[in-house]
Task: structure prediction
Amino acid sequence: MNERLVLCETFDRIAVLTLNHPEKRNALSRAMLESLRARLRQIATDQTLKTVILRAAGSVFSAGHDLRELSSVARADAEVLFATCTEVMELIRQLPQPVIAEVQGLATAAGCQLVATCDLVVASVDAAFATPGVKIGLFCTTPAVAVSRALPAKKALEMLFTGTPISAVEAERYGLVNRVVPADRLADETMSLARQIASASAETLALGKRAFYEQLPLERAAAYEVAQRYMVENCALDDAREGIRAFLEKRPPQWKQ
Result:
């Protein structure tokens, strides 16, 4: 792992990952993806961490895949690259901790995919999002998986067919972004949201995130079956019992983690 490509700091049980290749517009090269994968794997097993912020150095969040790398890559290497990218995206979904994208500037193609994959998104008012692969003959097919699950189908297809960027305000309107904030407040507002989430029980957050994504693609009846199972499991957790006692006794809960 190239540790300089993805920096990792921790504050108050919050991990902050920073894409750190601004001179390449934080392109998701194979090396960048491998570094991000390694960081995510470390966080997944760290029970002291409750929330993750994913941010980027420089003026661009991520310009997507490194086109110079793609222009000369052999088919077998392309298969590894896109498989690694998919693995990173799935790791974010499977991570026990909620992941918040902190987006400044532009997030395009696989960079937009990365944003759409995160559980929550806080964006600077000057951020923008695009899937412009169609303009260079390389349709954003893998980014479309995440984008089409974060946006209504027709808006996602408009982005995919035209490559035209949408603003942070428009992205919020269509559900890609949770909050749009002034540029000079981006880091503070994202950290505030992360701290609010981190005040909850770690095991409850992990169970809730897992349950949400398991039920999401199901029909209503099947979704309720999954949700009921998780509710029963949740009721048996020590932290659930502690939380209920604390509520009834009108005191702050004392979580295990």
Notes: The CA atoms of residues 101 and 115 lie 6 Å apart. The first strand starts at residue 6 and ends at 11.
